[in-house]
Amino acid sequence: MRNKNDWYNPFDPDCKAYTQDLKGRKAIDLHTHTLYSDGSLRPAELIDYAIYKGLEAIAITDHDTVDGLDEAIEYAADKDIELIPGVELSTEYKDKDIHIVGLNIDHKAPGFVSYLDDFVRSRDVRNEKMCALLTEAGMPMTYDELRAEYPHSVITRGHYARYMLKKGYTSYLKEAFERYIGDNCPYFVPREKTTAADGVRLIVEAKGIPILAHPMLYHMNWDRIQDVVDELKPVGLMGIEAAYTTNTLAEERETREFAARNGLLVSGGSDYHGEAKPLTDLGMGFGNLYVSADLWPKLKNAQTLRYGVG
């Protein structure tokens, strides 16, 4: 059995058999993260690993930031892989966290960039408050220290957890969420959120493909997911993420059937973070994920029909 390091190490020799399998299957990955949000690899390292794995295309979809996309686009320009610029927006639907992935976005669209700038500023205020609360509770830290520890990242609670573990404030990562910074914990400060509908509108403004990310993670029944889609489709939702690391085969099948009933396209990805999620491998999730390269032309064609670009 492979250990944790086997899964995220980009050039571990034990990956070679898996790499050959991917090369023969014409696979892609439309949901990945770099150290510009909460992943561990630079864009160039992620692209190199995607090539090593044999992926035909990869989308970089960092949380609420496009800071790594110029680096990624430039690096991938002469490589034998298609780099898809993307983003994953943190939004809210009736007090429920909902993520909207945007694929093939114009990451320099003025309105889109302005929103991300405002979002980062509001997140900075939230993080200052959380650091103050944790310090008062006997776990001293400043936001400047956090940013220095993770200099290229949009700071998330995952960064807090890793920092708290490093400082000895917790014994394991999960403890940070269970006792201190989880949603209902005493040192959690909610950040300002945008609605899921506005998230879709922002992706549309950037002429991208709005995708409802990992619906199974919201622990909603299909009737409630239907309510979400009924609100988001009129403002531009184009697809839903059916192939995902934690989905069972039955859940993937149900999501595909749901997509067909609602006239939505299907997307998929590993949600790869590198060392931050060591059991999730690029393009393969826990080992059985497969996102067919056939999905991407369908998504891109729909984008061309909608915007005249793609």
Write a compact overview of the structure shown.
By secondary structure, the protein is of the alpha/beta class. It has helices at 4-8, 16-25, 43-53, 69-76, 110-136, 143-149, 157-167, 173-181, 196-205, 222-232, 249-262, 295-307; strands at 28-32, 57-60, 82-93, 96-103, 194-195, 209-212, 239-244, 265-269.
Fold topology:
Elements: H1 4-8, H2 16-25, E1 28-32, H3 43-53, E2 57-60, H4 69-76, E3 82-93, E4 96-103, H5 110-136, H6 143-149, H7 157-167, H8 173-181, E5 194-195, H9 196-205, E6 209-212, H10 222-232, E7 239-244, H11 249-262, E8 265-269, H12 295-307
List keywords for this structure.
310 residues, alpha/beta, TIM Barrel, 12 helices
Describe this structure in words.
The protein is globular. Strands 1, 2, 3, 4, 5, 6, 7 and 8 form an eight-stranded mixed sheet that branches. The protein starts with a helix and ends with a helix. The protein is built from twelve helices and eight strands. The chain is an alpha/beta fold. Helix 7 crosses helix 8. The chain has two domains: 4-116 and 192-307, Metal-dependent hydrolases (TIM Barrel); 120-181, no CATH class.
